[in-house]
Design a protein that fits this description.
By secondary structure, the chain is of the alpha+beta class. The protein folds into 2 domains: 46 residues, no CATH class; 52 residues, no CATH class. Helices cover 21% and strands 26% of the residues. The longest helix has 19 residues. 0% of the residues are buried.
Length: 117
C-alpha cells in the first residue's frame, strides 16, 4: 500500500510573512496617530491674524448636543471642543445635502471679556 499524503486544512496553515508585516505596519501607523498630541492642519485661528503653530493647539475633546433654532424651523448640532475651548453650531442643508456652519465661538475670548457687562 502507498502512504497517503495528508493535506493540511487551510484553516490551520501558518500566516504568511507578508500578512504579519502588513499587520505590524498598520499597528505602527495606529500607534503614531494615537500618540500625537498636536494638530497642524489649521494655520490660522478665527479672529486672530497671527499664524498658530501646531504646538499651540492640542487634540480636541468633543461633546455633541442637538438643539433647535429660535424659530424652531430647523435642528442644530452644537459641537464643543473642551480642550481648545471652542464651540461651533452647524445645521443640515437639505437642498445641498451638506452640513452648513451657523456660528463659531472662541470661549477663551469670552472669558477675557469685561466681567461687569
Amino acid at each position: 500500500m502507498h502512504a497517503a499524503k495528508m493535506r493540511v486544512p487551510k484553516s490551520t496553515r501558518r500566516p504568511s510573512r507578508g500578512l504579519i508585516a502588513l499587520n505590524l505596519a498598520l499597528l505602527a501607523g495606529l500607534a503614531a496617530v494615537s500618540l500625537t498630541t498636536s494638530v497642524s492642519a489649521q494655520g490660522f485661528r478665527s479672529g486672530n491674524d497671527r499664524a498658530t503653530s501646531s504646538a499651540d493647539r492640542v487634540r480636541g475633546e468633543y461633546a455633541v448636543v442637538a438643539g433647535e433654532t429660535l424659530g424652531g424651523v430647523s435642528s442644530v448640532i452644537y459641537v464643543l471642543d473642551s480642550a481648545n475651548r471652542e464651540l461651533i453650531a452647524i445645521k443640515w442643508d437639505d437642498g445641498a445635502k451638506a452640513l452648513e456652519g451657523i456660528g463659531y465661538r472662541d470661549m477663551n475670548v469670552d472669558t477675557m471679556g469685561d466681567p461687569d457687562r
